[in-house]
Every structure is written in C-alpha cells, then in structure tokens.
Specification:
The protein is α/β, with parallel strands linked by helices. It contains nine helices and 15 strands. The radius of gyration is 20 Å and the shape is globular. The chain starts with a strand and ends in a 9-residue tail after the last strand. The C terminus is likely disordered.
Length: 333
C-alpha cells in the first residue's frame, strides 16, 4: 500500500508518524512549500500533484488548509485514490456534490477525519444512550474552548489558517468536531440558530466564538459552544434524558451517568487514554477500510451533513434569525 500525504503541518505530521507506526512504509508527500519538518522520515516529496498521483498511491491523506481540501480530493478521486480528508471537508459547499458522485462511481473509501468519533468517553456515552440508560434524549450541550495562541507553541497564531478566512479558519469550521458528534449522538437537525462573532483582542479575520442552537428531528434540543478564547481549555458534553443524565469530560478523562431511579452518579474514568490514541485508531480504521476489512464508521455523506450544518449556522448568524434545516441550496451561498 502506498500513501500520499498532502499537508504536513502538525496534524499531517501526526498522521505520518501514525502511518509509520501502523507499518506503512511506502509514503510520498505533495507540498507546495519546501519540505520541512519531516522528522527525518524517508518520504519522497513532490511539488506537482499530477506527478505524485502518477506514482499510483492507494490512498491519500489530505491535511492541508481547509479551503484547499476539495481541489486535491477531486483530482485524487478521479485518479482512483481512496481518501482520508481532515475535517471539515471544505470551507464551503462548492464541489462537494461532485466529490460524492466520483467517490460513489469509483466505489472509493472516503473517510472524513472526525477524530472524536474514536474518543472513549463519547463512545461510552453513545453506548449508554443507545442502551436506554437515561431514557429518551431531551437535550444535549457540547462545549469546546481553547485559547488560539496556545494551540501550536512556537508558531505565530496570526499566520495560521485558523486566523484567515480565505483558508477556512474560524470557530465554526475549525471546531466542527462538536457539530459532528452531536448529530452522531442526537440525530438529524431540523432548525438552527447561531451567533458567531469576533469579540476578543485576537488579531484574526474570523469569528472567535460561536453559539449554535439546534432542534433535532427527534424533538430534542441542543446547544454547541465553540471558542478560541478559553485560557484554561475545556471540552465537555452533557446529555439530559427522561431517565437520567450523562456528562463527558473529554479532557479530564471522565464519564458520569446519573440514574434517576437510584438518585446516584456512576463515574467511570479512562486515565490511561492518550490523545494520540484517537488519531492512531482512526488511521488504523481507515487502512482497514481501504483493505476491505472494515466498513467506514464515518461516511462522506456524514461529512457533507456537517458542512451543510455549518453553512446553515453561518446563514443564521448573517440573517440574525433561526432557519429551517436543511436550507435550500440557493440560501446557503
């Protein structure tokens, strides 16, 4: 199996190391900038994408800036490559229908990189929810906050893609893991409200905080808070059901479940968990899908679903009102 890497920033280098750990030895890279930061890896670097694709990679890992995902993904899919695309799929809806059509026509694996689907706390919450432990889901709230200048020590946050609108930055796109997993847990969304603003002194072009209110087809309601602001760092999810409550503290490594019948909390901790475990499990799953040993846990259609929700949230923020979802395509432009 030959893998082509596109984008070797922090997450791209993480994927590269994990591929090596999983036993993949034939790895090429496509870069438009000088090949730096490869940690001594024996990687053949191409400055031309067509030349890289002519080497017939089995699959491609796309981890370049968000706004550059789709052009690369389309060319790779046409060339017959299986796709791992870092989240979100793109910065807009343009080209997504074409990508879906090519992937289906060529029967390719296309896995969006929603790594939190492999988080042990969220996996346990989903199991508890599906087993009926808290009854019918009534409400869900997901929160994530981390101070943007602290994300990548040693790098100027003002020059990164998160700070630049043309590269697909901003809290809604950059922190969309939460938008993915609330739909994974609570189902499809029918109504969306959003406030997305730049409220801090951060020197960026994009929104640094977003509050998204959701109505689900099941009748449940939800809220998703996303920010570049919180100095202490925070990531959590709270699910309220007719028969109990589940709280997942993703950074602290803890799941708590309140059982209304007993009036007690059951606390479970997963202290041995390391952050890279999610990325490693995700990449191992992708390779297994490419080899036909597993079925994708995250589909391309689900990635498109998140993209449509982001577009609806942006539309709501611009219009200053709640909107039905999914919106007509013309309204999302």
């Amino acid at each position: 199996m030959r893998i082509l890497m596109v984008g070797l920033g922090s997450v791209g280098r993480r994927h590269l190391r994990n591929l090596r750990q999983l036993g993949v030895t034939a790895i090429d890279a496509y870069r438009t900038r000088p090949a730096e930061g490869l940690d001594g890896e024996p990687v053949t670097v191409y400055s031309d994408l067509d030349a890289a694709l002519a080497n017939h990679p089995t699959a491609i890992v796309i981890a370049n800036p968000t706004s550059l995902h789709l052009p690369v993904a389309l060319r790779a899919a046409v060339a017959g490559c299986h796709l791992f695309i870092e989240k979100p799929l793109s910065h807009s809806l343009d080209g997504l229908d074409e990508l879906v059509a090519v992937v289906r026509e060529r029967n390719l694996v296309a896995l969006p990189g929603y790594t939190l689907r492999f988080h042990p706390g969220l996996l346990e919450a989903r199991q508890l929810l599906s087993s009926g432990r808290i009854g019918r889901l009534l409400s869900i709230r997901a929160e994530v906050g981390q101070y943007l200048p602290d994300w990548r020590p040693g790098e100027d946050y003002r020059r990164g893609y998160s700070a630049r609108r043309n590269l697909g930055g901003g809290a809604l796109l950059d922190l969309c893991h939460e938008l993915d997993y609330v739909m994974w847990l609570a189902g499809p969304v029918t109504r969306v409200g959003c406030v997305a603003e730049h409220v801090s002194d951060l020197e960026i072009e994009t929104e640094d905080v977003a509050e998204v209110i959701l109505r689900f087809a099941s009748g449940a309601v939800g809220a998703v808070h996303l920010d570049y602001l919180e100095r202490s760092g925070h990531r959590s999810c709270r699910l309220i059901g007719s028969g109990g409550t589940i709280v997942v503290e993703l950074l602290a490594g803890e799941v708590r479940c309140f059982d209304v019948s007993t009036g007690t909390w059951d606390t479970r901790r997963y202290g041995a968990f390391a952050r890279n475990d999610m990325f490693l499990a995700e990449m191992e799953h992708f390779l297994a899908c490419v080899q036909g040993r597993e079925t994708p846990r995250i589909t391309l259609d689900e990635g498109v679903r998140v993209q449509r929700l982001i577009a609806a949230a942006n539309h709501s923020a611009r219009e200053g009102r709640f909107v039905d979802h999914p919106l007509d395509a013309m309204m999302l432009t």
